[in-house]
Amino acid sequence: MFMLWELPMMCDIGGMKNRKRPYGPQPRNPEKERVGGHRSDRRGHGRGKSDDRFERKPRPPAPDRPTIMVAQAWREGAYIRGRVLQRDLVNIDFEIVEGDEPILHGEFVEVEPESQNSKRLVVRKKIPAQQAATWAAICNHGLRVEWPAEVDKDAEKLKAYTWDNAEGRADWRKLPIVTIDGADARDFDDAVWAEPWEEDGHHIIVAIADVAHYVKAGSFLDTEAVTRGNSTYFPDKVLPMLPERLSNDLCSLRPHEDRPVLGVEMWVSAQGRLLRHEFKRATIHSAARLTYDEVHAYFEGDKTAVPTDVQDALLKLRAAYAVLAKARERRGALDLDIPEVKLDVKDGKIVGVSTRARHEAHRLIEELMILANVAAAERLSRVGGGLYRIHPEPTKEKLENLKASLGPLGFTVPAPNGGPKAWAKLVAQIHEHPAAQTLLRAILQSQQQAKYDPNNIGHYGLALPLYSHFTSPIRRYADLIVHRALIETFKGPIGGDVAPEVMGDLARRAEQINATERKSQQAEWEARDRMVAQHFAGLVGQAFDAVVISVVPFGCFVAVDGVAEGLLPKWDLGRDWVYVGSLSCWRKTRGKGTLRVGGRVAVILKEADPLGGRLTFGLAGDTPVLYEDKTGGYRADGTPVMPKETPKGAPKGLPAERNAEMERPVRVHTPKYGKKPKRGHSGTTMGHPLGRAKRGNSGKKPTRG
Fold first, then answer.
1. For residue 94, what is the domain's CATH number?
2. One domain, residues 519 and 554
3. What pTM was estimated for this model as a whole?
């Protein structure tokens, strides 16, 4: 089957089957086509003979592409040319077929091919310019936006929860339990509480929204949630897994309202070890809706940042977190602590860039959620069912690539079986590097992607033998599967509402959820890249200080202000630069200059493509690599400054200032890359860049006539 991106020239094979062309070669007949490779490959098989080793293999099918896309119209008289907002097709000109509503020059439209192999695109509807970046990512990855009518009907039929003692739920309504989320959060799916326990231990409760109370297995709501798999978060839009009637209202643990939860009580020792746990379906009455910034301000001494009736509860939570943080450090969990970049978007354009600070309040909630996920995984390992969140150890190939990037900077990359503590030691060393955030991202990229699986192999990054996802059933279907597996084990009226077919083929369900997770992640990145390119489109020609984040044979990728990422292609580097794969860097053969991960470089923005979401940079000036004073611990290219020694013959007894002036760095042998031009005879051009002598000059000595 031919698809749009192949764009073949079709002909009526059936009509030409029994007649000859008046000119040109005859059309191929696959049934009579000679089998075999090129004649130079048929060694010793005779002319026209075939061999199984040279039989032609069918071309693999082209990857699936969405049939609905977003394009920008360029009117040229009566003809409308369109550029599709998709990286594979952005450089192909299509013809847009105008409908009843006229299309203006530069407008964005949602289109679909007239046929599978056609370059004509039929307009479905117009797209506002401020929504084009996000809408293109939604179409390119086939994300669901509209809710089916059956789903809306099921959501509207649901009623708000009311306390019923006969239901058998635990009553946690009088506990000063609180929710702590971001300032812009709208769905609150977790609440926390803690108190001291015997022998300096802690009793902790983590309560999670009981989504299974509303979303029954096999219902229209459940089917739609399975299809979506998870919520998708764009800078200017959210595609929730559940309708807003559930995610922002019925399931959300809003303050001062009774809400059903699936909670876990955990008892932790003074060393942070989980001694025992118990899962319960309960009812809570949240005492307050707090934000990370408010809790952080209170921990820093601002007594007015939070209500007085929850201040004592926050101090008890802080004490429990301190114990869990020490336990995490002892087991060597991988803590990269990379700040998240936030794009402030208004009307589809970036109006500001900020960094989400991670302080103690974030880590507090993170540790409590990890503890609850561990408890859920331990429970599943005993009762069966559910999905684990597994994270395999890094592959040997990725470790070799990381070693090539970090080795020249003076860091030792752990061996494949080095264990989490070796990684924790490396991360602690990298935090002292001036380009720490870039190097930490390189470590993150060297790790394998975590995924869901019914078979447990442990979580390498968290250094945990058992781990699952239990704390976000509003936005992740995998968490809802875990909830149902736990509820199925309860006795009485509060358990047993899980259909056998839902808990059946977990392997197939895990594969489906992993695919939707990757799809959402790629769509989020694509929309973000397109918005950043649109923001930088007005800055073409300006110079920036960038950081090298990746080195590849065709150039290197650089980051500007921690937000914009683009390619510095090798053809812009010039002939003086060569790629050294063993050291994972670009090195200058004449003069000083090295481009490696973590190094700083001055660049000029040469091209910004908002449609494709690409930025292209070039070197700025003759000395683009930024060097700084070598009195610090690292140079600007990221390499450590070598220790100095006093040169031989230096007079002793001089002041320290004089001795420091006479010190010279220790010379380190570095191989020279590139061949030195040969010196030829007089009048020749041996070693010329073109590699040949000039015409009419053979290099021989002149003879007298």
1. 2.40.50.140
2. no
3. 0.78
